[in-house]
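Hey, does this match?
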Amino acid sequence: MSSDLRSSNTTLSGGDNADIKKESILERLNKRNKERQNYLDVKLEQRNKENVQLEGADYFAQTFAEQVRAIEELLQSATEVAADAKRPGTNTNSADLTRVFADITLQIQELQRYLTTSTMFLTDFKIKACQKVLNDLSSSCEESRLRLIPKKKFGFSGKKVAPKVLVNPRVVNLSSDKVDMPEKTKADSTAFTWTLANRENEYICLEGDALNGKDITVSNLKHCFVELRGYAGSVQISNVTDCTFLCGPIARSLFAEYCERTTLALACQQLRLHSSNTCRIYLHVTCRAIIEDCTQIEVADYNYDYATIDADFKLAGLDRSQNNYTDVADFNWLSPDVPSPNWTLLQHSPTPNWNELRKQKQQTTSPL
């Protein structure tokens, strides 16, 4: 009797072990199957994402090339229009050429916007190559315009010219009735609407009709404090050292090069910074900012303010709610997985007191 009981217990124990072993094997198989399925799902999602990016890049390349060809054809047509204008008995005149070049400029701007909005799926190398094409087109357009459109002969129009008013040679307020235009700009008014050049240790404020909607150029400044209080069309800065620039909203772009130990507060549609180092930028930009050949660039949120800045944002066509200051493309750093060492976000830093800095600069530049 006891022998049969032991035999029965042994059989039951063996059956339980077999069931446990079977469940363990099934559990491992199910786990392995789930892991395999998850792996396949991830690979499928990654493949779909890569296909979308490739399709987007292919479509961009085709569209960009077509637009470039169209602009090149327009540039060729400008030459033909100019040749027609020289033939006797034709109705072609400089106004026709002006319209052609206005159309070319508009198409180049549209293509620039298309490139800017497509940077999310383009490599930095592709962005740099396309930007070079756009720069070449812009240069060709300007060269052809200057060559083909006859320059007006210089003459005195009889209009009154506002006298140069300088209360203090080193503290200058440039408004619509206080114009201190360099001689180069006076002689060639087609080059730039406004230029500041060759200044040192000055406080300069540009506002009103001398600034609003105009293209502003600045070069060769040292130890200067410059305010652009209004809405410029575009701004170009070159070769400045130990300067501060406070810029109201800029309708199009700000291009800066060869800036050393300089602080900029600026709001614009596009920012390009070249060959600069040890600069701090308080930025509002609606497109992706671009730097090239730059080192030690610190970027923070835009913080310049004055009485009419809200109205100037609207007049410049900039959206205050859209700021991409954290998205900076470094054309010298092509690794997508490692952040560029040439720029960094400025965090946990006290906001500059522009009013106090302005006052200090005015005091140091005032006459003894």
About this structure: The helical segments are 2-86, 94-117, 124-148, 183-187, 309-316, 354-365.
